[in-house]
Amino acid sequence: METITEEEESGKKDEASDEDEVVLYIEHKFCSACHLEMPLRCKHCKDCDQCVATHDHHCPWVNNCIGELNVRQFYIYLFMQAAQLIQGLSIVGRVLLHRKESTDATSVGKETQ
Ligand SMILES: [Zn+2]
Ligand SMILES: [Zn+2]
């Protein structure tokens, strides 16, 4: 991340105030709760009560924010959840098929008797 000295920053403020104030507001976003200057894509989470870099969302399933430091682990978590869902559905499917086959076999046996 690029560091900006106070002299450069004040010079940029003067230049930017003449051009566009919206750009100045986005570049110098400040979190009033953490008292920190927020970089772009940073957001203060009310649930976690802290600023999160590259904020994606607050996940209620992991009870934490998904951001720059844990987005890779979150994707692994999603992949594992999907794999577990597929495995569970295949087990249920096999049980249902086995039940149907066993009921078919008993009904065939009853017909022959
Ligand atoms: Zn904050
Ligand atoms: Zn959060």
Overall pLDDT metric: 80
Taken in chain order, the helices and strands follow as: HHEEEEEEH
Which residue ranges are poorly predicted, with pLDDT under 50 across at least 5 consecutive positions?
A: 1-10
Output the strand order for the largest sheet.
1-2
Q: How many H/I helical runs?
A: 3
Largest sheet: 2 strands, antiparallel
Oligomer: single chain
Estimate the global geometry from the Cα principal axes: rod-shaped
Percentage beta strand: 15-25%
- Provide the gyration radius in Å: 28 Å
Structural class: alpha+beta
Strand element count: 6
What is the rounded distance between the termini?
Answer: 82 Å
Bound molecules: zinc ion
Helix percent band: 55-70%
Description of the molecule:
This protein is of the alpha+beta class. The protein has a domain at 70-113. It contains three helices and six strands, in the order ααββββββα. The chain has helices spanning 6-19, 21-27, 71-112, and strands at residues 29-31, 36-38, 43-45, 50-52, 57-59, 64-66. A two-stranded antiparallel sheet has the order 1-2. Strand 1 (29-31) and strand 2 form a beta hairpin. The longest helix is centred in the last third of the chain and has 42 residues, at 71-112. The radius of gyration is 28 Å and the shape is rod-shaped. The N and C termini lie far apart (82 Å). The relative contact order is 0.06. Mean pLDDT is 80; it is low at 1-10. The structure holds zinc ion (2 copies). One zinc ion binds next to strand 4. Residues 45, 47-48, 58, 65 line the site of one zinc ion.
